[in-house]
Amino acid sequence: MSERSVHATFVLERTYEASPAQVFAAWATPAPKARWFGPNEETGEYELDFQVGGREVNRGSGPDGDVYTYDARYQDIPGRAHCLHLRHAP
Amino acid sequence: MLNQSLPLDHLYQALSDPTRRTIVERLSRGPASVSELAGPLPMSLPAVVQHLHVLETSGLVRSEKVGRVRTCRIEPTALRTAEHWITERRANWERRLDRLGEYLAKHPEEQEQRGES
To answer: Which residues of B6-19 are buried (b: 16+ CB within 10 A; e: fewer)?
Structure first.
């Protein structure tokens, strides 16, 4: 069994008019993900290498002018269902 | 804007202990003396004073001594700072998921790999 760190969590639930494959692609492909996850402004920076060991960087200015950097590494990608908790609308 | 990282370190460190959270819960119902706070806690008075010291350093609790009695009270702004940080993180994700929804609505053509639906 792989080791996992469990931190505090919170849950956001959304239902989209889209297939799980489409939502997964929007999450795992750099260009689409930059559109919704990346910084708003032109000066920002976004990169994504969606694989185990891959890195995701998101840099942009907040409303206060400070520059925030999100720098993540994917330690584990347990599969599509786990990754997104995809659910079809009834 | 707030340079929050140092206060946040202290705030969350202070809140990471169950005894200190019990004290915060008690004080959120109103001010109390050190001995009133210590009464129900299964530890020595010096141990309670230690916990109070951590809470005071974090800014969550203020105390003043009148005569021989030290009265503690909650400092609501510090609690709000801790709350604000969590709310902000959540709001960021809500905004992102809004944008994801907009993106998905604008790109229905990419649904060729449609699932079982």
So the answer is: ebbebbeebbeeeb
Model confidence pLDDT, tens digit, residues A59-79:
887 767 778 888 888 887 776
Domains and CATH numbers, chain A: 20-84 (3.30.530.20)
Q: Whose CA is closest to A25, among A56, A50, A54?
A: A50
Taking an 8 Å cut-off on Cβ atoms, the answer to whether B114 and A19 are in contact is yes
Complex ipTM: 0.74
Q: Provide the shortest C-alpha distance from residue A22 to chain B (in Å).
A: 6
Look at B105 and A17 and tell me if their CB atoms are within 8 Å.
yes
The secondary structure of A16-64 as a DSSP string is -SS-HHHHHHHHHSHHHHHHHHS-SSTT-EEEE--STT-EEEEEEE-TT
Give the per-residue pLDDT at A6.
64
pTM (2 decimals)?
0.54
Which domains occur in chain B, in start order?
Answer: 1-106 (1.10.10.10)
Nearest to A37 among B89, B90, B96 (CB): B96
Which chain A residues are closer than 8 Å to B113 by Cβ?
A: 19, 21-22, 25
Contacts of B116 in chain A (CB under 8 A): 88
Query: In which residue are the tokens 């804007």 written?
Result: B1
